[in-house]
Write a structure and sequence with these properties.
Structural class: alpha+beta
Number of domains: 1
Radius of gyration: 22 Å
Oligomer: single chain
Mean pLDDT: 92
Amino acid sequence: MKAQHMKQSSPLLTATLAMLTIHAAVATAAVTADEAAQLKNKLTPLGGERAGNKEGTIPEWDGGYKDNRAKSGGKRTDPYPGEKPLYAITAQNLAQHASKLSEGQQAMFKKYPAYRIDVYPTHRTAQAPQWVYDNTLANATRAKTVNNGFAVEGAYGGVPFPIPKTGQEAMWNHQLRWQGEAYKWRINTWITTADGKKVQVSDSVVDNQMPYYYKDGTLESYKKEPYFLRLVTNGPAQKAGEALLIRDPMDPVAVGRQSWQYLTGQRRVRKLPNAAYDTPSFVTSGVSNFDEIYVFSGAMDRYDWKLVGKRELLIPYNANKIFGPAKDADAMDERYLKPDLVRWELHRVWEVEATLAAGKRHVIPKRRFYLDEDSWLPVLADGWDAKGQLWKTFWFLPIVAPDVPAILGGPFGHYNLQSGDWIANNMMNEKAEQITVGKRQPESYFTPDAMAGEGVR
């Protein structure tokens, strides 16, 4: 009788399970209040583990960087100038340290035997204002992903998913990480060709603004556009006067990235049809794709995402030292950034894997990202080609910025492990003013009309 009842009920049960499965694909729920309470004790206010590791090589988080004397703008200085490396990793001792290195970094030693990683004491310098911590706590129980994880609802003014359950949630934490309300960059972009020639492809001023982090805003008043970017190119001469405008939505799949380009030859602004995914970026002369900017940016629907878990990894960190030389070129060797200017530390990272979704296309079918647990910055990533061969290894140098206060993403780029060329973006050594924070522009500044009105060529 019981078996007969189950058999008769199975169509309804099947339908119910199917509806639940569909709902799970469409949205993920926020965490419980009990889970969120961990942000006050076990976890940092942004979601990292407060405790150090058992070996003592990763210290406890004690609130972040303590020296708040830094001023906005000017040259960013090394917060730990007197420290010496604990040890160096070379091709000769690689096997001893391989378990703490990404596949891309291991491949660098195999391709370039002179490559070196200098490992320094770990300092957990990430921090944010209290109001960002408060919003992060609120987001933990109200934010959710929708549209198969490719959009966010119910989040404002803090990390949306400080206790992530999915790969998309972790990547949204990167895309909506705390970087301040507004900041201006003065940057150079360099390509080093396979034969070792350095070519400057851009000298730009970039205004970034995050309405998602307006201190005087609210979840209710927020217009669901988290990020504005306006880039004006000053050089080289053939590019001078070109400009790019991007306004990113909270649902980049349904709404689409809104982007425009000012062309000096035509003296007009045109809407870009697809400044996203694996479309080559004209700002980098096509060497980087649009979704490789800041290691990853934009819509996530080309991939299936997996939250692999957390691990200890040697990553670039507290990397202001890169700005020491007066010239960009003096911070770059022929095949990579100068090893004695890149500070590496042992930190915990979230590992997220992206594999090409069924029916989709992308020139990098598989990618792996490593997100710093304290700042959510994607400090390292690797990409594989269609043959399954490791192709590119990406890096993003975390910069200590106590005037925000935050860890900001500084220079970033990738090494092409197959061709040997590489790109270094956000280089600022030659700029008297590097990163100026805190001054918001009127939102009308981030419009095509404003960009057209200021065109000078």
